[in-house]
Amino acid sequence: MTVSSVIEALGLTVHHEGKGNCPVSRGVVGDLLSFVMGGAPEGAVWVTLQTHVNIAAVAVLKDIPLIILASGRNPDEELLERCRLENIGLAVASASPFDVCGALHDLGLKG
Amino acid sequence: MDSRYEVEFPVRGDDFLAAGEASNQIKETLVMLGVPSAISRRASVITYEAEMNLVIHAGGGILRAIITPERLTIVATDLGPGIPDLALAMKEGFSTASDRVREMGFGAGMGLPNIKRNADVLEIDTEVGRGTTLTATVFFGRQDAREG
Fold first, then answer.
1. Contact residues on chain A for B106, CB-CB shorter than 8 A
2. What is the SS3 assignment for B49?
3. Which residues neighbour B18 within 8 Å (Cβ) at sequence distance 6 or greater?
4. Interface confidence (ipTM) of the complex
């Protein structure tokens, strides 16, 4: 899977595609930044309900290529700007975090 | 690399817009110097958590990275309130962060434990009313030296 194929398969609303060709095979879900910082696999897709700019810093440091904001939550403007600047994928799913993770798992992504 | 390379970044207290920038700069420095990615990943956890502690708890401070052929040392220095009970602060889940900060996903009480897990050596010099200096060392090629 790639960032682009994940976006397409889940029907996400894209705010910034980022590195569309970047391969992804792992995922992480969480709203505690230290949990993601300490435990996320490198290069994982990150599912979260947080919408503020600080999640971009975590994504940069963990080489996370795609952040999925679940439950239809829209990003703060500062977050969108930072994701554009750092070329991090940022997309919104209308589904809940649980259902987004289920869909990612069905695509073959592991935790 | 040269025998010693050092970078230093000021970190502003309560500035959540800039939070993480110092850690990112240090990560870029490590990549530029050709530091192995396994070391760089551990360093990112250490620098990020130390930087956020400066932002959230200390009213700002200085984040430094010193790289030699043998080791990477991260030093976070502040003139903040100090840590009254260091053993308690090291416990997973303990935090003194405000509700506002917790709502942003910080203050889970995982910062110092995350640093300890990723450092081979962690020293914290703190005194109430004087401030805190955190020194975390990661040895290159000595995975067996890691604590906890």
1. 33-34, 54
2. helix
3. B11, B12
4. 0.90
* pLDDT per 10-residue tile (average), chain A, 111 residues: 97 97 97 95 95 96 97 97 98 98 98 94
- The total domain count for chain A is 1
The domain in which residue B29 lies consists of 5-142
Q: What is the CATH number of the domain that holds B56?
A: 3.30.565.10
Element housing A84 (H / E): helix A77-86
Burial class (CB in 10 A: 0-12, 13-18, 19+), A31: middle
Span B8-58, pLDDT tens digits: 999 999 999 999 999 999 999 999 999 999 999 999 999 999 999 999 999
- Which residue in the set B16, B20, B117 is minimally distant from A61, CB to CB? B20
Q: Given an 8 Å threshold on Cβ–Cβ distance, is A61 in contact with B24?
A: yes
